[in-house]
Amino acid sequence: MGCCYSSESETPEQDGDERKPLIPHPNPDSKPLNGTERNPANISSTRTDEQALLWIINKTAHTLSQKKPPSLPSLTSQPHQVLASDLVPYSDIQQVCKVAAYTYSAISQIKVDAKEELVVQFAIP
Known about the structure:
- This protein is mainly α.
- The chain has a domain at 25-63.
- Helices cover 48% and strands 0% of the residues.
- It contains four helices and no strands.
- The two termini are 33 Å apart.
């Protein structure tokens, strides 16, 4: 990103530094040679990495299992009274159903008369 100044007087050493990665590979010999051979030193470092990851996972799992789950929000301080109260009157339910039917009827009668195309086709020249 950005511009890079270049001149013919650059030396090959400078060009070599430009190709070097900013963050070196942590374990460049971790790939098996010829697809089958492995270096024994790499195996022990892999085991150490696995042990470190297992330790982190176990610690995280233990920390999460020790936390108390948050309590659910309470809409009322006396839920037993709400549950024991009278049911919603049937007339109220009828009124809600009637309003819903009127709303559906009104929405279904809405019509859009387009004076021009609502979707315009674009052609690629």
